[in-house]
Specification:
The protein contains eleven helices and eight strands. With 254 residues, the chain is of the alpha/beta class. The chain is globular and about 45 Å long.
């Protein structure tokens, strides 16, 4: 089954509206001719509306970086799916390791957020991955199994293929230490097998990205791996030129 690759740039807490506008004006001409690759920028909440407006009619989709599972309520500082949908936001990153480690995001919360995003019509990018210690202790598979089982527990089997999963080894995020081809392929094939354990057809079509120190120099090799369906790019997505180079390095199924 041909899966359309997705290259998603995770800006994290970077770019004011002015900087975002400058970036997108540099990015759009560089990706206007791209076919067969889905492109997303995952931007801070304050950049969502201007980026949706500026990318309208282009191949670039706009994602948020977090949301609450409830449609509304007494949750100071949170944003809900109807608020994102109202802006024409296409999807949302959920469970990024920074949110898990620094802001107390739990698997229990994610078990509510992922189905809530799907029900609202948003594409969730669910991030999973092991720490360096877990890898050293041969606990990578256990960690991935636990996160996939827990975080996708509320997603019906026939909707699993609508989730995007990002495998992000925590030791590779922002460190310049990219996973080897073997490590990335093995972990992502394992995640696909976990999905297959629930629904074999979903496993064929679910997109699983690699994330962690993806750069223009290593992108084409990683993206050519059999089970890797794209990348979640942090640091190298902050410059339009290097993000566009990663998009250009993506093999398509066309
Ligand atoms: P990085 O970040 O590309 O800077 O390693 C990836 C991520 O956190 O999604």
């Amino acid at each position: 089954m041909a899966r359309t690759p997705l290259i998603a740039g995770n800006w994290k807490m970077h770019k004011t509206q002015e900087q975002a506008e400058e970036y997108v004006q540099a990015l759009l001409p560089r990706v206007s001719a791209v076919d067969g690759v889905d492109i997303a920028i995952c931007v801070p909440f304050t950049d969502l509306q201007p980026m949706v407006d500026s990318t309208r009619g282009s191949p670039v989709e706009v994602f948020a970086q977090n949301m609450h599972h409830a449609p509304e309520g007494a949750f100071t500082g949170e944003i809900s799916s109807p608020m994102l949908i109202e802006l024409d936001v296409r999807g949302v990153v959920l469970g990024h390791s920074e949110r898990r480690a620094l802001f107390g995001e739990t698997d229990r919360a994610l078990a509510l957020k992922v189905p809530a995003a799907l029900a609202a019509g948003l594409v969730p990018i669910l991030c999973v991955g092991e720490t360096e210690e877990e890898r050293d202790n041969d606990e990578t598979d256990r960690k991935l199994r636990q996160q996939i089982n827990d975080d996708l527990a509320g997603v019906p089997d026939d909707e699993l293929a609508s989730v995007v999963i990002a495998y992000e080894p925590i030791w590779a995020i922002g460190t310049g230490r990219v996973a080897t081809d073997e490590q990335a392929q093995e972990a992502i094939a394992f995640i696909r097998a976990l999905v297959a354990g629930r629904d074999s057809r979903a496993a064929e079509s679910v997109r699983i990205l690699y994330g962690g120190s993806v750069k223009p120099e290593n992108a084409s090799e990683l993206l050519a791996l059999e089970d890797v369906d794209g990348a979640l790019v942090g640091g190298a997505s902050l410059e339009a030129e290097s993000f566009a180079q990663i998009v250009a390095a993506t093999p398509t199924t066309l």
